[in-house]
Amino acid sequence: MKPIATPKFRRLLPVALALTLAAPLAAAYDFPGCMSGLRAQAAKRGISAATAGKYAAATFTPDLSVLEFLDTQPEFTTPIWDYLAGLVDDERVADGHAMLEQWRDVLQKAEARFGVDPATVVAVWGVESNFGRSLGKRPLLSSLGTLACAGRRQEYFRTEFLDALKIVDEGHISAERLNGSWAGAFGQTQFMPSTFLRLAVDFDGDGKRDLVDSAPDALASTANFLSKGGWRSGETWGFEVTLPAGFDASVAGRRNKQPMSVWITRGLKRADGQPLAADGPQRALLLPAGPQGPAFLVGKNFDVIYGYNAAESYALAIAHLSERLRGGEGFKTPWPTDDPGTSRAERRELQRLLLARGHDIGEPDGMIGTKTRRAIAQEQEVRGRKPDGRAGKWILDALRAQAGGQ
Ligand code: CA
């Protein structure tokens, strides 16, 4: 459940200035009073006084840095081909295959119970938390407690905070292990606490629903989420198609589902060369980069994946990764760009090349942060390219050529 856009972090500001901005904020909110109200609400929900007293204490220390995320607008809008190139790369496909093998029994049992196939469940796992490796580092009760008492979405976050208290109080996950994103998504499935209480399941039979340290619980909870969202067993999410010349793209859109006969009449063909069957369920035409890029006919299961995180690019990443895990290939139609996206391995290589050229960008971890973007922008500028800081194939190739020529 990650946003596609990269947030504009206020850490771009000098630290001292950021502190002076944050300092008056702390005094502007009544945390002791707010926590007192939360303790009363917790009691009504059957949360023990011990748990509430400990984590919703009068002495609660807010983490005001989360408030900055709440109101920041995306600085960079990631092109869909960058987004997909990083999420569905050979590395994640190989890792996904290994996970399918390692957790085969659990995944088969989850499919038998929830009707969702292993490749889809593992694809969600791979995109949400890199198969349990990236869980988020912020203490959840601290983030949610802050957002429950400050900022513009307090009502929403009060519920999430109380639900997180409930999770701790019921002993599913300890407060110390309950870390996540600034907004409260946590664990291998990146559920919000309210989603946890509705949909998390204990699948390893230890009596705890542990989405942090139990892969079986996480995998089955993901399957349960998709199942409750209306997953249709045995039905594909969709497939890539090609459009005839002069196609009227105004009919595209995930909500505009049409009988397959309509799409056949309009001249769509399957990109893999198989015939387009007229009798399937209704589908919608998705053009993530307009009519010049890859086109897809998507059905109900695509919408179910979309329900996990409301972004079509996200749903396409999951769908595509699941397809690759079933042995499928990349898209037939290339993205409409002369500067394609890069895999995580290529991003690390790009960072190593930048380091070799003297840019101070820290460890080459494949994460394109502010320092890497700045270094890329400089290298683009000296080459007469628009300095947008994008970690695309063009700048990688340029730096490779230069390194090879030295
Ligand atoms: Ca368990």
Can you offer a commentary on this structure?
The chain is mainly alpha-helical. Among the domains are: 13-73 and 136-198, Helicase, Ruva Protein, domain 3; 238-325, Orthogonal Bundle (Lysozyme); 344-405. The protein is built from 18 helices and eight strands. The chain has helices spanning 15-28, 31-44, 49-55, 65-71, 80-87, 90-102, 104-114, 118-129, 140-149, 154-169, 193-199, 215-228, 260-265, 300-306, 312-325, 344-356, 370-382, 393-405; strands at 6-7, 74-76, 138-139, 179-180, 238-242, 269-270, 284-286, 295-298. It has a four-stranded antiparallel sheet. A two-stranded antiparallel sheet has the order 1-2. The chain has a two-stranded antiparallel ribbon with strand order 3-4. A hairpin with an 8-residue loop joins strand 7 (284-286) and strand 8. Helix 8 crosses helix 12 (215-228), helix 9 (140-149) packs antiparallel against helix 10 and helix 14 (300-306) packs across helix 15 (312-325). It is globular. Bound molecules: calcium ion (CA). Calcium ion binds next to loops.
State the gist of this model.
This protein is mostly helical.
- Regions with pLDDT < 50 over 5+ consecutive residues? 2-20
Structural class: mainly alpha
Please give the count of helices.
18
Specify the biggest β-sheet.
4 strands, antiparallel
